[in-house]
Specification:
With about 300 residues, the protein is an alpha/beta fold. It has a single domain, classed as Metallo-dependent phosphatases (Purple Acid Phosphatase, chain A, domain 2), CATH 3.60.21. It has 5 helices and 12 strands. It has a 6-stranded mixed β-sheet with strand order 3-2-1-10-11-12. A 6-stranded mixed β-sheet has the order 4-5-6-7-9-8, with helices on one face. Strand 6, helix 5 and strand 7 form a beta-alpha-beta unit. Helix 4 runs parallel beside helix 5. The longest helix has 16 residues. The two termini are about 20 Å apart. The relative contact order is 0.16.
Length: about 300
């Protein structure tokens, strides 16, 4: 059995100090959003309890689907690097960027390169990212036993009132080859992406702009599991594909207190194994319970991969 943890949308706080030049443009709007709304939602004590819960679960690997940062300040990347190193080693944690990690246009070296070790593949396939200095080249593929983790980048800078994502034709083409080859080799394929990957799963201003193209790739090539964040919601959608049923799963923010519109922080555990020639996957939801200030089992579901 392979045990995988999935978390997303950490939004690490508090906001670090920044110069007026750094806060020009969209970053200033993001800072105001944090000051007057988001900092009351994203609670670092809650995040610490969730992280402790993951560590105590003794999982084999962690999938982290983006938004470690808030407005992509340089100090956020340095602080995020320290947080990641305390959370887990790069061979145990796989990361993909979110829109807040690409809040403004920034060179790879000035930002995401600091987290690059968590976004490097170890399974050599056409068009995938294998080196930390191979700036922005996604997807990447990691092999863990008979599990393949495929990191897709949807985090791109967007206008001040947008939080959309974009995969792009180069990634889609590489993903097509990767999914087909991994299926031929008998891998359980887990696609990681920040934005909900199918049309209609997010509001227009927050949606993946080429979700229809990604949906066609998934339908044509198949994947057993697609993990995302972004919406800060419990989400589960089934997609019929050429190779069987794919489960598309999104999680709430890993640091969130419960609000009228959004659930409290949660992480998902997937227990994956091969039995009698078929894949089984049991999904357990671990949620933050504010009244007891602890993590509890919310529900459990067996994910069918019929083909």
């Amino acid at each position: 059995m392979f045990k995988l943890a999935h978390l997303s949308d950490v939004h690490l706080g508090p906001m670090p100090a920044a110069s007026p030049v750094q806060l020009a443009g969209k970053r200033f709007i993001g800072l105001m959003s944090w000051k007057f709304r988001r900092r009351a939602i994203h609670n670092m004590d809650v995040l610490n309890r969730l992280v402790t819960d993951i560590k105590q679960a003794n999982v084999d690997h962690v999938a982290f689907t983006g938004d470690l940062a808030n407005i992509s300040l340089p100090e956020e990347f340095s602080r995020g690097q320290r947080w990641l190193s305390e959370f887990g080693q790069p061979d145990k944690v796989s990361f993909v960027p979110g829109n807040h990690d690409a809040y403004v246009k920034l060179s790879w070296e000035a930002g995401l390169a600091k987290w690059g070790d968590y976004m490097v593949g170890d399974l050599n396939m056409p068009g995938v990212r294998m080196k930390g200095n191979n700036a922005g080249l996604f997807p990447y593929v990691r092999q863990r036993r008979n599990i393949a983790l495929i990191g897709v980048n949807s985090g791109v800078p967007a206008p001040w009132n947008k939080a959309w994502g974009h995969v792009g034709q180069r990634q889609l083409k590489a993903l097509t080859e990767v999914l087909n080859k991994l299926h031929e080799k008998g891998f359980y394929r887990i696609v990681m992406i920040h934005h909900p990957p199918l049309p209609g799963l997010a509001k227009d201003r927050k949606a993946l702009r080429d979700a229809q193209d990604l949906k066609l790739v998934l339908e044509k090539c198949g994947a057993e599991l697609v993990l995302h964040g972004h919406n800060h919601e419990h989400m589960h959608t089934e997609l019929e594909t050429r190779t069987g049923l794919a489960h598309v799963v999104g999680v709430p923010s890993a640091s969130a207190l419960k609000t009228e519109k959004k659930p409290a922080a949660a992480w998902y555990q997937f227990a994956i194994e091969r039995r009698s020639g078929a894949w089984t996957n049991t999904m357990t939801i671990r949620s933050y319970e504010g009244q007891g200030a602890k993590m509890v089992n919310q529900s459990q579901l067996c994910l069918d991969h019929r083909d």
